[in-house]
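Before the break, one more example. Copy the sequence into your notebook; we will annotate it together after we see the structure.
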Amino acid sequence: MVVVTDAGVLPLLGGLGVVAEANRGLKVANTLVLPDDSRGTLTWARDIADALHAAEATACVAAGGGAVLDAAKVAVAALEYPWLFDHAVWKSTAGLLPWVRERKRGEGQPVLLAIPTRPGSAAQVAPRATLASAVNQTQRMVAGEGLVPDYVAVDSRSWADLGSRSVIEAVCEVLFRALGPYLVTQRCTDEQERLVSNLVAEVLEAGWSALGAEGALTPDERARIDTLSMATADPRRTVGWSPNAHPLWCVQNSLASALSVPKRVLTPGGFRAVLARERQELDPLRSPYRVASVDRGLVRESLEFLDRAVEKFPMPHHKLSSETVDEIVREIFALWKPVMTAGGWVGPPDVKQFLTHDLGFSPE
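Here is what the structure looks like once it is written out:
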C-alpha cells in the first residue's frame, strides 16, 4: 500500500481510523508527502504512479485536500491510460483534456481510497481532476469515469480545527458548484429545478450556521457540510445541461495561477460579484437564454449570504499590472473560449471589466 498525503495532514494520519484499519490489513510500502496548500502538478501524479509501480502496490490511500486527491486520481488512472503523463497533452491550448474512460477496476490495478481532509472540493467523488503541467502553470481539467476513486472514507473530524475563514470558503465553494451552472445552462428540467432549489436552500442554511458558529461547528454540522459538498457531484442535477460549467471557474483558474493562491480563496468574492450583476438590467456574465427562467429568489438569498461572508472575511487584495490583467484574459479565452461564450461572457472586454471593476484587481 502507498499512502499519499501533504505536510499539513501528515500529523493527523494516525488519528484517521480508516488509515489505521488499512494498516492492519496492508503493509505500507511508501508514504509520499506532497507540499502543503499548493496547487497540484503532473509531477505529483507521476511520483505517485512511480511509487505504486515500485512497490507493486495493491492500494493507494490518498488523504488530503483536493490537490492531493486529484493527483492520486490521475496517477491511478494513468497506470491504464499512460497518455495522462504526456506533457504535450497537458500543455495543449485546450483547457479540457481528452475524456478518461472507465478503467479496469480490481483487475491487477491498485484500488484508490480517497479520504478528504478539507471540506468543499468534493474531489473524492467527482469524475474530474485539475492539475498543472508544472509549477506556476495554469491548471487544466481532465474528466471521465476512470478518475472516480474506488472507495471513499469521509471523517469530518479531520477538519475539526479548521479556521472560520476556511470553513466559510468551503461553504461558498459548495454554493458555487450548486448554483453556478444553473445560472448559465440553456436546458433545465422541472425536476432539476427542484433539486437545485433544495440543495441551495440546504447549503445556505448550513452556511448561515457556520457564520454564526465562528468556526466552532458541531460534529453534525461538519458532517452536513461534507454531505452537501458531495451532493453537488450528483449527476442527476446537471445531466443534459449545456453548458454545465459557469465561466467564473475558468476565470478563477487563471487568476489563482497568476496570484499563486488556491481557487477557494477567490470564490466568495468572485461569486458574490457574479450574483451582484443579476441586479443589473443588462448582464453580460450569463446566458441570455436563462434570463426569464432563473429563480431570482435563489440568487437574492445566495447574494445575501455572500455579502455577509465577504464582509466578515474580505477577499485578499492584490494589485495586478495592466499587462498581467491582459495576459490573464487572453489565457482564459485561449483555454476556455467555448465555456466562456456559451455562458454569456461574450468577449475579453467583459472579463477585463469583471476583474478590474467588479473584483477590484485594478492595474498598478
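Residues 281-285 have pLDDT under 50 and may be disordered. The CA atoms of residues 192 and 236 lie 7 Å apart. Try to locate both features in your own notes.
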